């Protein structure tokens, strides 16, 4: 196509910078190195540190290098551990189910039903903005709403639906679930909407033309094509609930504890080795669950092109 | 999606989902609206309705030095920390985003490291860093250990956002720049970065607000100087008064301001670009 003159003109300015040019691979390494260094130093290394400390010996004064399995033995044989894991898992599954339902339907609505781009952006922002308010504030926001004399009870009494205020609303497992859903539904909406937006609408039309019902189209076309988003959202919600420290403490009224709030108590008592052992178990648990979900869906293929 | 005839009859699912959306938004904003209202509670009012008059008494209460934990100072620290976090996050993730466009040995490992850092229970990150500092006998501080703890959260977030930004980027612009004789640096400075700028600003805003509201990662490593969320947390355990809601209202207003400013800048940028391309 191009003449020789054009070709030389194209090459000439390039060859000026030829003095030192790293290979593409080296360039990539250079570009990702700050990220790699920070994550290794401040994430991987500290994780190794508490792995090591979890085998240490301790008393009321300090911690001593050792290789003991006692911290783990003690942790795994107390019934309290099992109880708190079960209670956290229960919350995680309830919240996961509800946020998945809400997140998928809302994402579907935003992507396929809303026709104007401006309205879609606005609605999406409306969902996203509360996410940028402190989780602590959003948690305590439920207190005047759900309390015995709270807005919700007053409303129900106002329309004569109930005579006595409902007591189970605040400082209960119910309150914990409500708060989690309030905090984390966006983590579902975002990734699922991202997956749905990549589906070519022509596919849905094709399914309809081929005689598929709305339900069949959903099950056989939309859900398989959005499973990356579903997996990503599920991972985020699940890990947030398992790692929660504040919500259960503030909203359950002391009826249940979370794994991390128990751990925090140990940290405050300076019992670092048992806290580290407990942290290690939690990390393993979360890693296995997340690993399982990533097995089902290759999240990386979707994100990095 | 937009090609369809707008007069086409909506299926019943549209109305069902629209109702769900509306209920969800009410659910999202209802309790928040309640605390915004209650923060204007009169001086004699409590933490629930009814309102005993309206006043800005509780806002003044926050600003009074010594009265409560030092909210204005903590606010300043939070802003400073969030600014630094945001700058580092943008620089590091833009660079990493560029790097990840090629497959390189170790890219999978680094990707999963970032995923792990994102899903790690937040408090444990602070715990690990705190332990490390203790072992080396370093003093934990806001701009060392707390900064590091927050980066383990904002960097993966920023990285994944940058992936989305780069996915939408059309590489033919870069090829055109190279063909026209641009050096690698010129190409980055005058072609790639300007095109990516709205996404980059989004990452800056996102990481700013994530840092500004962060609690669980920071709490064990902040040293002696508390950030605003840490002060709020301390207040919750000690007292309940509408002052708490006033703080909530103010922090929301700040987040909102940051979001709106960023969006306005992005919109202006896009509009200017649109006019320019129309002129060309």
TrEMBL record, chain A:
Q: Which residues cross the membrane?
A: 28-56, 91-111, 123-146, 166-189, 221-242, 275-297
Region feature (Disordered): 1-22
- InterPro entries with a match to the protein in the record: MetI-like, MetI-like_sf
- Record's bilayer topology term: Multi-pass membrane protein
Residue stretches of biased makeup (Basic residues): 13-22
Per the record, the major location class is: membrane
- Keyword Transmembrane in annotation: yes
Q: Does the keyword Transport apply?
A: yes
Gene3D superfamilies reported in the protein's UniProt record: MetI-like
Q: What PANTHER family does this protein map onto?
A: INNER MEMBRANE ABC TRANSPORTER PERMEASE PROTEIN YDCU-RELATED, INNER MEMBRANE ABC TRANSPORTER PERMEASE PROTEIN YDCU-RELATED-RELATED
Q: Which family does it belong to?
A: Belongs to the binding-protein-dependent transport system permease family. CysTW subfamily.
This chain belongs to the protein called ABC transporter permease
From TrEMBL, chain B:
Top-level division of the source organism's lineage: Bacteria
- Keyword annotations: Cell membrane, Membrane, Transmembrane, Transmembrane helix, Transport
Where is it chiefly localized?
membrane
Q: How does it sit in the membrane?
A: Multi-pass membrane protein
Statement: the UniProt record of this protein carries the keyword Transmembrane helix:
yes
Q: Where in the cell is it found?
A: Cell membrane
- Which InterPro entries does this UniProt record tie to the protein? Bact_Polyamine_Transport (IPR051789), MetI-like (IPR000515), MetI-like_sf (IPR035906)
Q: Which residues form the ABC transmembrane type-1 domain?
A: 75-269
Membrane-traversing stretches:
12-38, 78-98, 110-131, 151-169, 190-210, 243-267
Say yes or no: keyword NAD present: no
**Gene3D superfamilies named in the record:** MetI-like (1.10.3720.10)
- Return the similarity comment: Belongs to the binding-protein-dependent transport system permease family. CysTW subfamily.
State the name under which the record lists this protein.
ABC transporter permease
Q: Which organism is it from?
A: Siccirubricoccus soli
């Amino acid at each position: 196509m191009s003449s020789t003159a054009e070709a030389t003109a194209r090459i000439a300015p390039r060859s000026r910078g030829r003095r030192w040019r790293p290979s593409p691979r080296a360039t990539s390494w250079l570009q990702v190195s700050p990220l790699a260094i920070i994550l290794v130093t401040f994430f991987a290394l500290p994780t190794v540190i508490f792995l090591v400390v979890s085998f240490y010996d301790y008393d009321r004064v300090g911690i001593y290098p050792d290789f003991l399995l006692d911290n783990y033995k003690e942790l795994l044989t107390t019934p309290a551990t099992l109880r708190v894991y079960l209670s956290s898992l229960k919350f995680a599954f309830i919240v996961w189910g509800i946020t998945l339902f809400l997140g998928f339907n809302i994402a579907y609505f935003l992507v396929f039903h809303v026709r104007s781009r401006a309205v879609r952006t606005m609605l999406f922002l409306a969902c996203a903005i509360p996410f940028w308010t402190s989780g602590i504030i959003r948690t305590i926001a439920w207190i005047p709403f759900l309390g015995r004399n709270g807005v919700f009870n007053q409303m129900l009494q106002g329309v004569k639906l109930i005579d006595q205020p409902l007591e189970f609303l605040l400082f209960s497992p119910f309150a914990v679930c409500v708060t989690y859903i309030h905090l984390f539904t966006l983590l579902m909406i975002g990734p699922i909407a991202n997956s749905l937006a990549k589906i070519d609408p022509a596919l849905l039309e094709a399914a309809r033309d081929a005689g598929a019902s709305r339900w069949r189209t959903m099950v056989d076309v939309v859900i398989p094509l959005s499973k990356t988003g579903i997996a990503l959202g599920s991972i985020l919600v699940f890990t947030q609930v398992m790692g929660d420290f504040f919500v259960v403490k503030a909203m359950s009224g002391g009826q249940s504890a979370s794994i991390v709030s128990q751990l925090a108590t140990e940290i405050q008592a300076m019992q670092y080795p048992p806290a580290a052992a407990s942290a290690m178990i939690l990390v393993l648990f979360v890693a296995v669950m997340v690993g399982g979900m990533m097995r089902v869906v290759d999240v990386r293929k979707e994100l990095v092109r | 999606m937009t090609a369809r005839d707008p007069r086409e009859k909506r299926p019943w699912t549209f109305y069902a989902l629209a109702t769900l959306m509306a209920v969800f938004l009410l659910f999202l904003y209802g309790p928040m609206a309640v605390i915004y209202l209650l923060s204007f509670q009169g001086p004699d009012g409590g933490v629930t309705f009814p309102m005993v008059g309206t006043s800005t008494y509780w806002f003044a209460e926050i600003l009074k030095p010594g009265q409560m934990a030092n909210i204005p100072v903590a606010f300043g620290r939070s802003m400073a920390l969030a600014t630094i976090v945001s700058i580092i996050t943008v620089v590091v993730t833009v660079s990493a985003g560029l790097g990840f466009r090629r497959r390189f040995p170790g890219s999978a490992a680094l990707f999963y490291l970032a995923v792990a850092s994102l899903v790690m229970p937040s408090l444990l990150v602070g715990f690990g860093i705190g332990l490390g500092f203790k072992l080396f006998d370093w003093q934990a501080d806001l701009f060392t250990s707390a900064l590091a703890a927050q980066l383990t959260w904002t960097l993966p977030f920023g990285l994944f956002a940058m992936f989305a930004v780069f996915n939408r980027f059309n590489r033919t612009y870069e090829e055109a720049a190279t063909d026209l004789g641009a050096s690698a640096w010129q190409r980055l400075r005058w072609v790639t970065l300007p095109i990516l700028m709205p996404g980059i600003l989004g990452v800056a805003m996102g990481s700013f607000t994530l840092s500004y509201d962060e609690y669980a990662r920071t709490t064990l490593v902040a040293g002696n100087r508390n950030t605003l969320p840490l002060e709020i947390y301390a207040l919750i355990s000690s007292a309940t008064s509408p002052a708490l809601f006033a703080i909530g209202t103010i922090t929301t207003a700040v987040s909102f301001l940051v979001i709106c400013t960023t969006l306005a800048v992005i919109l202006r940028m896009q509009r200017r670009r649109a006019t320019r391309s129309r002129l060309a």
